[in-house]
């Protein structure tokens, strides 16, 4: 069995929402619900741990009633929030996902489940555009884009390993941008890259939100068409 931690933090400042962006609704469902439902409906997950800020704790409690759900208060940043979630994990393997990625594919989750048993892994997509190193808005050098990967979530880990990595990071007072990088640097672990879907977008801007609305409306439209 697997556990999943879904991070529900995010004030939505770049979206000018005035509230947590994962509570934005598309066709009556929040972004967080779209992200969590994929794991709730997967029989291989026995616990779905949602990490949320104190302001929205009661709201999330009302939205999610499935017996798999565990709701945990987040911390001052992403790293402390994941730590809080990890304390609730009881399974051998844990998958960590951004609640602001509501369009994660079932095929992507399946790939992570299959590969995490062999070692830590993360989804990625390739870079299409030319990539450069810059300074003061001047190109300093061109980078071979074949050597560049855009990291996404979900990311999968053996629970004991990622817990130890977080313990070391806290002791060393180091902050990392995601969980794979934390494991990579703190425990020198090789992290496998798994090709993901380009439409597994993290909603951070108004542009992202517009794309996500189109994607989810289109997907829901197809589902309705095939169930008629």
- The unreliable regions are 224-228
**What share of the residues lie within helices?**
25-40%
Beta-strand content = 25-35%
Q: Provide the domain count.
A: 1
Q: Determine the structural class based on helices, strands and strand pairing.
A: alpha/beta
Strand order of the largest sheet: 5-4-1-6-10-7-11
Overall average residue pLDDT: 93
Radius of gyration: 18 Å
In the CATH hierarchy, the architecture is Alpha-Beta Complex
N-to-C span: 34 Å
The count of DSSP E runs of length 2 or more, i.e. the number of strands, is: 11
Dominant shape: globular
Write up what this structure looks like.
β2 (25-26) and β3 form a beta hairpin. This protein is α/β, with parallel strands linked by helices. The protein has a single domain (2-121, 153-227), classed as Alpha-Beta Complex (Spore Coat Polysaccharide Biosynthesis Protein SpsA, Chain A). Helix content is 36%, strand content 26%. α5 (159-171) crosses α6 (179-187). The chain is globular and about 50 Å long. The chain contains 7 helices and 11 strands. The protein has helices at 31-40, 57-63, 78-86, 106-116, 159-171, 179-187, 206-227, and strands at 2-7, 25-26, 29-30, 45-52, 69-73, 93-98, 121-126, 131-135, 138-143, 149-158, 192-195. The strands form 3 sheets. Strands 5-4-1-6-10-7-11 form a 7-stranded mixed beta sheet, with helices on both faces.
Brief account:
The chain has helices at residues 31-40, 57-63, 78-86, 106-116, 159-171, 179-187, 206-227, and strands at residues 2-7, 25-26, 29-30, 45-52, 69-73, 93-98, 121-126, 131-135, 138-143, 149-158, 192-195. It is an alpha/beta fold and 228 residues long.
């Amino acid at each position: 069995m697997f556990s999943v931690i879904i991070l529900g933090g995010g004030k939505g400042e770049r979206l000018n929402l005035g509230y947590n962006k994962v509570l934005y609704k598309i066709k009556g469902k929040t972004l967080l619900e779209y992200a969590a439902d994929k794991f709730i409906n997967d029989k291989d997950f026995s616990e779905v741990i949602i990490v949320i800020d104190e302001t929205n704790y009661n709201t999330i409690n009302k939205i999610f009633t499935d017996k798999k759900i565990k709701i945990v208060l987040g911390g001052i940043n992403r790293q402390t929030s994941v730590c809080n979630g990890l304390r609730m994990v009881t399974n051998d393997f844990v998958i960590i996902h951004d609640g602001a990625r509501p369009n994660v594919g079932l095929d992507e989750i399946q790939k992570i489940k299959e590969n995490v048993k062999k070692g830590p892994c993360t989804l990625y997509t390739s870079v299409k555009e030319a990539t450069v190193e810059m300074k003061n808005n001047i190109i300093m050098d061109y980078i071979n884009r074949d050597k560049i990967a855009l990291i996404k979530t979900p990311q999968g880990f053996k629970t004991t390993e990622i817990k130890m990595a977080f313990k070391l990071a806290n002791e060393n007072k180091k902050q990392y941008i995601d969980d794979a990088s934390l494991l990579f640097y703190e425990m020198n672990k090789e992290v496998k890259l798994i090709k993901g879907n380009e439409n597994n977008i993290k909603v951070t801007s108004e542009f992202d939100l517009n794309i996500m609305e189109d994607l989810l409306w289109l997907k829901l439209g197809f589902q309705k068409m095939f169930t008629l």
